[in-house]
Amino acid sequence: MGSRLGSYVTTFLTDSIFHSGDVQATGIAVCIVSMLCFSLICFLIGLLFGKPPGNNACKKKKYLVRTVSRGCQFGRSRPSFVSNIGSKKAIARFPKQKNSVIVSCRELPRQLNNVACLCCKIVAAKKNCRYTRCGSCCRGNKASICHAHGTGGTAAQGIVEGACQDKPTELDLSYLNLKRCPDRIGYIGSQLVSLNLSNNRLASLPDEIGFLRGLEEFFLQYNCLTELPNSIGNLQKLVELDCKNNRIRRLPNTLGNMTCLSILNVTNNGLQSFPSSIGKLHELEELCAHSNQLTELPDEICKLENLTSELDISSCELVYLPDSLSRCTSLVKIWLSNNKLKAIPDQMGRLNQLKELHVRNNQIRYFPASLSYLQLYTFSANHNPLIEEWNIESILNLSVQPSQVIPPLSELSARCIVKNDVYWSKGDVPTALEDMLLNVRQCSSCEGPFFKHYKSQVVFSNVGVFHRVPLYQQICSPYYNTHCQPVDTK
Ligand SMILES: *[C@@H]1O[C@H](CO)[C@@H](O)[C@H](O)[C@H]1NC(C)=O
Ligand SMILES: *[C@@H]1O[C@H](CO)[C@@H](O)[C@H](O)[C@H]1NC(C)=O
Ligand SMILES: *[C@@H]1O[C@H](CO)[C@@H](O)[C@H](O)[C@H]1NC(C)=O
Ligand SMILES: *[C@@H]1O[C@H](CO)[C@@H](O)[C@H](O)[C@H]1NC(C)=O
Ligand SMILES: *[C@@H]1O[C@H](CO)[C@@H](O)[C@H](O)[C@H]1NC(C)=O
Ligand SMILES: [Zn+2]
User: Fold this and answer.
1) Which atom of ligand 4 is nearest to 303's Cα?
2) Which of 82, 101, 118, 213 has the fewest CB atoms below 10 angstroms from its CB?
């Protein structure tokens, strides 16, 4: 047949070349025909021997192979490994073991298509699918994510049932379109270290989640959660909790029981406040809470001594910050942009590790003088109604000079009471003194208390690299206390 085709082509060529007048046109025609033939042959070869397209969507590969220890027998027709070119590597990695079961195989190469179903142990799981049960065991329906395995809920239930038996250390239930947690998820066991429920449509978590006491990583991002169950506080080994992109309005007060927590990401939720127990998270290193509706931070934030890396509370509704923030002295980066801050704490300059401070787009008119002690690499402060250097009226308006050199006796006694922590209750002191005591202020320099006798001024100085900003300071003893030196303005 090949020779006949050959003779046809030769006849056609000789005919067209020698019986046609235009040799050039014929030459071009022959060229085109031969190119077409060549690509047709290439295509055919590709179809016969080519590899199927690889699954490039998976970047991070996690293999979880559990060995079922009970003498588990496969049925009569154990699925055999198909030896096509692409699967050789995968087979080498997963030898023909009678009892290897893959719990989470979402990211397996698609060639590995013959893991036995956990339920019937006969039929192979389908290609490119992470479910551990075969289609018939999952009573599949066509409108599913994975055509062989039914809806996300059914598949997830299958995975969880399997996990309750196999006791894996990690479980991936992400992207299953789940509206509720599969039943019995809490009963998988305390050996579970990592649980990924991200990218579903969960509106709530069951209380039994608190049974997973071994959990170290818990991924809940991209769901529709409005709150977390109180029982989450039982996860006392949890190191990372990611619940960004949900609709969480409040965190349970039991949060403080998760004493190992080191990364907490609650970005893009509806949080209005943090529970005060957050102060118990002594290991917390990163707190990411931007895009929430936080109006204030709890005072307890000062107890987060290990908050080293980051504090991100930008794009919230913060109006003021607790003074205690200045005690998180390990902080390196603080993001506070896009809030409604009118001021930042007076003693911010105590954060001597601070290298980045972002306060763009707030209502700040001036910064505390202590800021000039910091060695900031990044300081973004634009889009604030900062006092301009030529605005003498505002500057003078903020300047106070005490009329007397010596503070009045009432001032001195009030300072004494506060400095020595003298306990007083209503009626113990004259009403004038009482009024004073209720309005204690802090010296920018010595941090001591003052009331009515002080000096205040606005100076302009550099903060960060070439940022000339207004700095405000209040000095308790402008005339004779050598500890109270105003900030250098040169
Ligand atoms: C959760 O699972 C998804 C899908 O398997 C994966 O892409 C993602 O990286 C996992 N998340 C984490 C934080 O491990
Ligand atoms: C967990 O937190 C709650 C509320 O803060 C507290 O009452 C409870 O004692 C804590 N439990 C443990 C085990 O620490
Ligand atoms: C928290 O999530 C945000 C948004 O995806 C991300 O930019 C940030 O790096 C995360 N922070 C932590 C500590 O994981
Ligand atoms: C901060 O973390 C270190 C090591 O992780 C730990 O030793 C230390 O006790 C923590 N600090 C506090 C205040 O708990
Ligand atoms: C000066 O301060 C007073 C009240 O303290 C305020 O009403 C006034 O608007 C201020 N003037 C300027 C120019 O800031
Ligand atoms: Zn002072």
Assistant:
1) 13
2) 82
Q: Which ligand does the CA of 450 lie closest to? A: 6
Pocket of ligand 5 from Cβ distances under 6 Å: 393-394, 397
**What is the dihedral angle through the alpha carbons of 258, 261, 264, 270, rounded to the nearest 10 degrees?**
10
User: pTM for this one?
Assistant: 0.68
Tokens describing residue 351: 């954060």
pLDDT in tens, 60-94: 222 232 322 222 222 222 332 323 333 333 333 33
| Chain segment 231-243, per-residue pLDDT in tens | 999 999 999 999 9
pLDDT-derived band at 376 (thresholds 50, 70, 90) equals very high
- Cβ contacts of 148 within 8 Å, gap of 6 or more: 125, 126, 129, 131, 134, 135, 138, 140
Separation of first and last alpha carbons in the chain: 98
The pLDDT value given to residue 414: 92
The residue to mutate among 239, 260, 262, 283, having the most atoms of ligand 4 within 8 angstroms of its beta carbon, is: 283
| Nearest CA-CA partner of 176 in 131, 239, 110, 228 | 131
Pairwise CA distance, residues 41 & 297, whole Å: 70
Ligand with the closest atom to the CA of 393: 5
Ligand nearest to the CA of 278: 2
Residues with CB under 6 A from ligand 3: 244, 263, 265, 267, 286, 288
pLDDT confidence of residue 124: 57
Counting Cα atoms < 13 Å in the Cβ hemisphere of 489 gives 12
Angle at 31 between CA 25 and CA 35, to 5 degrees: 150
Task: Spell out where 192-304 has E strands.
Answer: 194-196, 217-219, 240-242, 263-265, 286-288
Q: Which residues lie across from 471 on neighbouring strands?
A: 367, 459
Task: Determine contact, residues 128/135, Cβ cutoff 8 Å.
Answer: no
- Rounded to the nearest angstrom, the distance between the alpha carbon of 265 and the centre of ligand 2 is 22
| H or E segment to which residue 162 belongs | helix 152-166
Using the predicted structure, report yes or no on whether residue 110 has a pLDDT greater than 70.
Answer: no
Pairing mode of beta strands 263-265, 441-442:
unpaired
The alpha carbon of 465 and the centre of ligand 6 are apart by a number of angstroms equal to: 28
Domain range annotation of the chain: 59-137, 392-475
